[in-house]
Amino acid sequence: MKLLLVAACALVDRDGRVLLARRPQDKDHAGLWEFPGGKVEQGETIEQALVRELREELGIEPCETCLQPFAFATHTHGDQQLLMPLFVCRQWDGFARPHEGQAIKWVRPQDMHGIDMPPADIPLAGEIRDRLKR
């Protein structure tokens, strides 16, 4: 079985809301809401991958030390197993704006129930909802 490492981040603003991004129509799970992030490339740490992905997708600049490990999820699809660590980040430079054609929205943790998400994001949303109460 092939292992795919994908890093994700729950960006939490000053009001305790979490940013979700909608997957573009040309990608797997199109139209579903997810935590921003992406594949960890050869030679990258998970934190480096998140910083790169957040810069590319949202135009923000988090520092690696602001990324706090929070939870992880796995999901098997065919002969591939996805391993997705989720980090929480509460500080970054810049304003989150979609740079890859995706929509974004800020959601309160308690309102995450029922949002259409890819399979690996669903248990992570539950962890956010249960553990990030404001």
Detail the topology: elements first, then pairings.
Layout: E1 2-11, E2 18-22, E3 33-34, E4 37-39, H1 46-58, E5 67-77, E6 80-89, E7 104-107, H2 121-131
Parallel strand pairs: 1-6
Antiparallel strand pairs: 1-4, 2-3, 2-7, 5-6
Provide keyphrases for this structure.
alpha+beta, 134 residues, three-stranded antiparallel beta sheet
Number of DSSP helices?
2
First-residue to last-residue Cα separation:
40 Å
List low-confidence stretches: none
Order of helices and strands: EEEEHEEEH
Rounded mean pLDDT score: 93
Strand content: 25-35%
Q: Helix amount, in percent?
A: 10-25%
- The helix-and-strand class reads alpha+beta
The geometry reads as globular
Largest sheet: 4 strands, mixed
Strand order, sheet with most strands: 4-1-6-5
> Which value, in Å, is the CA radius of gyration?
14 Å
- Annotation, overall tally of beta strands: 7
Structure description:
This protein is α+β, with helices and mostly antiparallel strands and 134 residues long. Helices cover 18% and strands 34% of the residues. Strands 4-1-6-5 form a four-stranded mixed β-sheet, with helices on both faces. A three-stranded antiparallel β-sheet has the order 3-2-7, with no helix packed on it. The protein is globular, with a radius of gyration of 14 Å.
